[in-house]
Amino acid sequence: MKLDPATIARLAEHLENCELQGRDTPKITDDHPEMDWDDAYAIQDEIRRRKIARNARIVGFKAGLTSHAKMKQMGVSTPCFGFLADCFALAEGGECKVSELIHPKVEPEIAFVTKRALQGPGCHIGAVLAATDFVMPAMEVIDSRYRDFKFDLKSVVADNTSAARFVVGGRALPVGDVDLRTVGIVLEKNGEPVAFGAGAAVLGHPAAAVAMLANHLGARGEAIPAGSLILSGGITEAVAVQAGDSLALRVQGMGSVGMRFL
Ligand code: 0L1
Ligand code: MG
């Protein structure tokens, strides 16, 4: 690690305040170009610790930048991982307040809910499918705290991978009842289809993203607990939204999930 504990705590407080106050900031590597991956995840961990200290519950995890479309959109080549707190969750069909956010975008995703703990190293798609209770359609609202989306991957990891809000809905299916590689999705904005894809856009199979997450956590001495909700990553590019927009995600055989931006 290159940053001292006081700097990590200060950067975590700064980024979390930006999140809570809906204001942007230059990317933190501008002032700390020496920052390494351990520093980036330590800042994210400190944000998680701050939320838990205020009685937030950690309900799961997210994988980000798991599709080629997202990697190309963001100019990066590796996935990243973050956590999900209960305060990020929106009701199905509910409202997302744009005034609380900076520049939100929506990603169509497949959510996994685990019935058994998963821990790397050596976690693979088969282990993920065996440990999955059910899968559901999900939309993630990402909201990078970095001004004009100008960031690098370490800054993004420190910023909890732009996590802001999420909604799950539709049909909760046993994972054996759907082929997550070929399942088709349509994302609609104000009734118009704006993005299309299939599950295989996420690392060939969305469960591969969950396996990567388990291996990432295992390398840090952590696991995915039973009962976790995991967002496996955007199947398409993220779609920018503004107040007044209605978004719906339709997933073949799994129903739909929606939300409105106010
Ligand atoms: O969920 C994600 O794919 C996170 C992406 C992080 C970068 C961004 O803000 O687009
Ligand atoms: Mg995402």
DSSP E strands, number:
12
Report how far the terminal alpha carbons are from each other: 41 Å
Could you spell the SSE succession in H and E letters?
HHEHEEEHEHEEEHEEEE
Briefly, what CATH class?
Answer: Alpha Beta
User: Which small compounds were modeled alongside the protein?
Assistant: hexanedioic acid, magnesium ion
Q: Which regions contain 5 or more consecutive residues with pLDDT less than 50? A: none
The CATH topology annotation reads as: Fumarylacetoacetate hydrolase, domain 2
- Structural class comes to alpha+beta
Strand content: 25-35%
Q: What CATH architecture do you see?
A: Alpha-Beta Complex
